[in-house]
C-alpha cells in the first residue's frame, strides 16, 4: 500500500515556512534600517515600506518593533551547555559567553550601530533580560537556584552583570580581541574561578 503524505501536515509546513520567511524579511529590514538611523527613529510604516509586508501581517507576528528586536536575539538560538573540570570536579556550565561574543562578532557592524545610538538603553534592557532568563533557568536545572532564597538571584545577577560589563567594554573599544579570546578570559574567571595568567 502506498504511503501518501498527510495534506494537513504539508499545508502546515508550507504555512510555517512562509511565516518564517516573513519574520526573517522583517528582521533583515529592521537591521538595514538600524544601520542607517537610531532604533527609536525607525517607524513600523518605514519598515513595511522597506520590506513590502502588510501592516496586518506585521502585527500577526509582532506586537511592536521591540518585540521584533527580541525575535532577533531569539534567532541567534540559545546557548548550549558543556562539561568542564573545576578543581577536579565535573561541572555543567552554560556556554552563554561564547554565545554572546560569537554572535556579536558575526554581527559587529549592527552591534556597533545599535550601541553607538541613543537607543542603546532599550536594546541593552532586552539583552539583559534574555541573559537573566537563560542563566536563571540553567541554575535551576543544576540545582543552584532556589526561588525562595536570595543567593540564587544574586548569583544570576552577578554573572549576567559581569558578562554584560565585559561585553560592553569589548563593543565600545571596537572589539580589541577575538570572540574566542573574550570567551576564554571570561570563562576562566567566572566558571573556573581562576584569574587569567599575567602576560
TrEMBL record:
<feature type="DNA-binding region" description="H-T-H motif">
    <location>
        <begin position="43"/>
        <end position="62"/>
    </location>
</feature>
<dbReference type="GO" id="GO:0003677">
    <property type="term" value="F:DNA binding"/>
</dbReference>
<protein>
    <submittedName>
        <fullName>TetR/AcrR family transcriptional regulator</fullName>
    </submittedName>
</protein>
<dbReference type="InterPro" id="IPR001647">
    <property type="entry name" value="HTH_TetR"/>
</dbReference>
<dbReference type="InterPro" id="IPR009057">
    <property type="entry name" value="Homeodomain-like_sf"/>
</dbReference>
<dbReference type="InterPro" id="IPR050624">
    <property type="entry name" value="HTH-type_Tx_Regulator"/>
</dbReference>
<keyword id="KW-0238">DNA-binding</keyword>
<feature type="domain" description="HTH tetR-type">
    <location>
        <begin position="20"/>
        <end position="80"/>
    </location>
</feature>
<dbReference type="Pfam" id="PF00440">
    <property type="entry name" value="TetR_N"/>
</dbReference>
